Amino acid sequence: MYAHKFSFQDSIDMYQPREFTADFNQGTYTQKDLFSSKSNKLILDSNSSQAIYQNQSKNLTVLNIAKLQLSNKDILNIKTGVGGFYKVELPDGSIVNLNSKSSLKYQANYMEDRKLTLSGEAYFEVKPLLVAKKKAPFQVQTELQTIEVLGTAFNVKTGNNNDETLLYEGRINLKNKNGILKKLFPGDLAKINEADTEVVKLNDGEMEESLAWKDGYLYYNNRTLKHILEDLQKYYDFEFNGKDVPSEYFTIYLAREKKLPELLQLLEKSGDFSMQLANNIINFKK
């Protein structure tokens, strides 16, 4: 494996569909077709003229998909690693904030249908697009639901055979695998599983807790320590025994840019217990 700049301009075969995967967990960029697969080391720098670069001031990795050169049949996959936060700019100017341990897939002819496939969690800022004087739809698909919007901002989270879709502004139509259609309005949270779809209204505090991650923070509103630690495992590599966790509740902001020991120290200062981190395992003492 050798170092390679993130580029999709290598020997484009216009007739053979290819799949490109930028895997930030493995640190590789892979080009694959029906006959071969080629992986290179993924290198990031701060040059904003590149299709992918590191915004050091905001601690973000930014992918400007509009600058990639793909043929219409090609597919682009973006896979994030533990602790990563990735801001993806789509060809129409829409923005996808992709959370840790997530993946986003779309075809190179995205501008023809504006369809994406998501696994994990992402916050979408959809830019309205007019085609023949009509608003072009924007569609996000997961294993359990299809979301169609005309121009809005919303959050989608998948996992453990349960999806959650939260509408921040605008309006969306949501259809589950059984074809049941729901219309969401700002503040609505749709909970989807294989059998049913439930819609609940969130208050301002609950909305803030659900969306703080996209601004680089983790906000917990009256949550148990066990809940907080389980959520932190999306961003940091550690283990703990759930039976040993003290039964304390917290309302707290944590900055994602902080290292795990710093966050644990903040939790300790706010509670009546101590935690020791050794070999990526947390032990508790009262």
From TrEMBL:
Residues 217-282 form the Protein FecR C-terminal domain. Residues 78-172 form the FecR protein domain. Pfam families: FecR, FecR_C. This is FecR family protein. InterPro entries: FecR, FecR_C, Ferrdict_sens_TM. It comes from the Bacteria.
